Amino acid sequence: MQKKTLYLHIGWSKTGTSAIQQQLDAHFKTLKSEGILYSKKLQMNDNAHHHFALAFQEAKAYPAKFTPSEVMALHDKEMKRHRCHSAIISSELSPFYYQNDAFKKWVTQFKNVVVIATVRPQSEVLVSLFNQLIKDPQVRFKATFFQLTINSLGRFNYFNSLNRWRNRVGDGNIKVINYQNDVVQSFLELFDLAVIGDTKKIINPSLPTSALLQIQQQALEISNPKQYAKRRDEITQECQHQLEPPSKIWLTAGELRSIDNHYMASNNRVAREFLGQPKLFTQSDYRDIYVY
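The line above is the sequence of Sulfotransferase domain-containing protein; the predicted structure tokens follow.
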């Protein structure tokens, strides 16, 4: 069967990806009836295709289960079994796949490659990512928010990344979806799908922000993931039952605004060149963030 389109949803992290992936999996049969595979075999957690992404670039806390050749063969087999001509691969861990020679050869079987990017103001992304990294018992994040921000400056430059993809797949094959504009429904509309179930359900809930530093401090030396998760939950409960609200400023409104100001020019370039709009994001309501 002639293969038509490979849709690569590359993330970014903390832009509604878990909710999107849950919906795509729920629409498996509908997509299949249209000849589009949303792989079951590549799913690792939260219905994400992390097995595919990790095969090309491992993460420290999550080693790869497959080699690139193995994961591409697995995907080919699944497409053949379900008689699909197109596929969606969704992982916020996606590296730039075109760095891999085997991928460059494999992807030529598709007539078209479409890259879908979900984007969100970087200050919000980084706060949410910091939360996720502390929450994850496999990661047990020990660095500061400042370190995370500095180390992520290049990663969250949306324009530079999308421009790199554009050079491979072409201008018309880059789709940008704004988190501020009902990101799940907007994503599904690309495939003429509607949200199934509760639209307000949180797929990957965050920890209370007020508890984050206490979890870091009190669980710092715990290396066992199960023990870490247990202590994390205990500290969370303790913070939630505090009679007084948190009073220690963790991040100021000015610091959060500075992060977004750093990216404003490149974000607006994304808006102009990929969306035909002057600005990518509306002004955020910056407020100081307090913790225990």
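Note on the example: DSSP finds twelve helices and seven strands in the chain. The beta strands are 3-11, 36-38, 86-90, 110-119, 174-178, 248-251, 289-291.
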